[in-house]
Amino acid sequence: MSKPCITRDEVLSRADELPAFPRIVVEILATLDDPDASLALLTEHIKQDPVITARVLAMANNAAARTRRLSMVRDVFTATSLIGVGRVRETAITTRVGHFVAGGVGSGRGMGFWRHSVAVGVCSEELAQHVALRTPGDLALVAGLLHDVGQLWLSRFRPDTSHESWNEALAHNDGIDVVERERFGVDHAEIGAWLAEHWKLPTSLISGIRHHHDAGTESDELLVPLLHVAEVLSNALDLGRRAENRVTRISSTACSRLGIVWDENIRPLFGRIEARSAHATSIFRHE
User: pTM for the full model?
Assistant: First the structure.
């Protein structure tokens, strides 16, 4: 007897049972090419979000202390001038996505899921800068944070079978995507792409989520090889210290497309990734 498959219609019909995807993230991604619009948008949202405001002001006051500035930073405008629009935007993105994940993840694997998401997000952003990819760092960050969002759906609506899939993959050293296709007829990457389409995220990000386990795809989107390499690298560095972290095969095609050379010059990249991942996870740990 054939196993029941998860369909696109089922995924989208239950998408509204997840927390609402943060609108600010969609709007930030839409204004990345317009710095003035991005700053205006951030300022408006931050004024209405006490959590982001507190984090931005804390970062600014830490920066002020290092520069021996005597007065406290008490407003977002001054904070932004001290730490930069990029860091403020990153803080807003990661905070909101973190709350989204916290509200949507099922029991058991919540913190491990978030640590891995942050690690791959940081890896994606740093890799994009390392290879001078013509992809905004914030887009790479969001792609990394959301690359496994299909697993979020599975852990919420198929918790037992999802857990069994991970145990089977670990026991037999199989790819989780392979086991999921056997059990569900579809893997978390495809489910994640359906959700990203539903949320009207950029097409390049959708493609990256859909193919992050299949870096040999013919897609022209460089987020595809970027996410693939970022996930393999985050596992190899054992970021997040998850039981699921395993060094898997890295696609030579993906490395070639990104122009990555694995020599001594890449070692500083590893250090930046490890430091930023630990810092981001500690700051953006969800309750």
Answer: 0.87
